[in-house]
Amino acid sequence: MLEQVFAQIQQLLGTVNEMQQIVVQQEQTITQLQAQQSAPPPAVPVTDRGPKMAPPPYYDGSMASCEAFINACRIYIAAKPRDFGNVTAKIMWILSYMQTGMAQQFRDSFLVYMQSPEYQTKFIQTAMGVDPIEILYRNIYQAFRDPNKQAMAILELTTMKQGSKSAEEHVQCFKQAYGCSGYQETAGIHELKRSLNTPLLDKCMSVPKLLTTLNKWYELVIQLDRQWRQAVVEKKQTQRNWQVPANQQNQPQQWRPPTQPVQRDPNAMQVDRNRGAFRCYNCGQTGHMACNCPNPWNQQMCLMNAWNGGTDDDREELWRMVTGGSSTAGVV
Q1: What are the percentages of helix, strand and coil residues in the chain, rounded to 5?
Q2: Which of 69, 122, 140, 232 is the most exposed place for a label (fewest CB within 10 A)?
């Protein structure tokens, strides 16, 4: 009987010990929870995504924009390295911008090539220090580059004219063509002078000491062109702001009486109205003179009538008028 009681006491003591351990564990848990609530939340790491970059333009396989497309892809990948997990992601991203023209054919062919063992060896299992993306860039450049780039640059350089462009714009175009032409600096200076507008070239040639380097020529051309354009702007501004002098604006105008019209004499130019009409001495008609007589034959008839019907004195006077002064009359 005592043994049973002693066994029950042992069981109760064991149960008490277990309950004490549970209480201790619960107190530790409560303490940890209180500590977590009082502590500030852990800072969330911010992923550095870098600056916002413009994606490259879609490429159609043209020779003129081949290098521009490659450079745009190179810039974006270098600025956003965390956007690409591996080499395959970079290659797929570049091929996604080759969607039209000959570039689309290159993309489709390269996708087939990616399934070959050669692709794994050349692009995936590359040696240390070899960038497989640069290999892709070289393949794109070899497929779409301009084989006559230097010849085209020389043609552009030798036919270039400034025209309506400013000096800054013209110099930038000249630099681009000159860099691909392979010309020496002396030949470049000659072509630059030839391409300038005549007024600007005259100003450059009037410099006391001519320049011998292209960079100095670039600076001189831009400086003189800016001065000329600034002078034109200031001249227009001066003409726009020109005003009449104050002494002319404030000068009062003198009053002048209205001008009376001059009255004409009603009898003016009427002197000849009292004169009779002209009478011809040949035919005796009015309206014309003897010098304009339409019937000169009547003159002879009048003379005969005056001779036959006149007196001796009349005949002498008529004879004198006809003969020019002789006093001896003939017999008719």
Answers
A1: 60, 0, 35
A2: 232
Please state at what angle helix 297-309 crosses helix 312-323, rounded to 10 degrees. 150
Q: Is the pLDDT of residue 41 over 60?
A: no
- Note the Cα 155 to chain centre separation in Å: 23
Contact by Cβ (8 Å): 53, 79: yes
- Both tokens of 31, joined, read 């303490």
Between 158 and 128, the more confident residue is 158
Which pLDDT tens digit goes with each residue over 273-308? Answer: 555 566 665 666 777 666 677 776 666 666 667 667
Return the closest-CA partner of residue 280 out of 262, 263, 301, 295. Answer: 295
Query: So where are the chain's domains?
Result: 1-36, 66-144, 149-237, 289-332
Q: Are 95 and 110 in contact (CB under 8 A)?
A: yes
Q: What is the pTM of this model?
A: 0.46
Nearest to 94 by CA among 123, 117, 121, 116: 123
Could you give the 3-state DSSP secondary structure of residue 145? coil
Q: 200-203: long-range contacts (C-beta < 8 A, 24 or more apart)?
A: 200/162, 200/167, 200/224, 200/225, 200/228, 203/228
Kindly state the DSSP code that residue 124 receives in the 8-state scheme.
I
Average pLDDT, the chain: 80
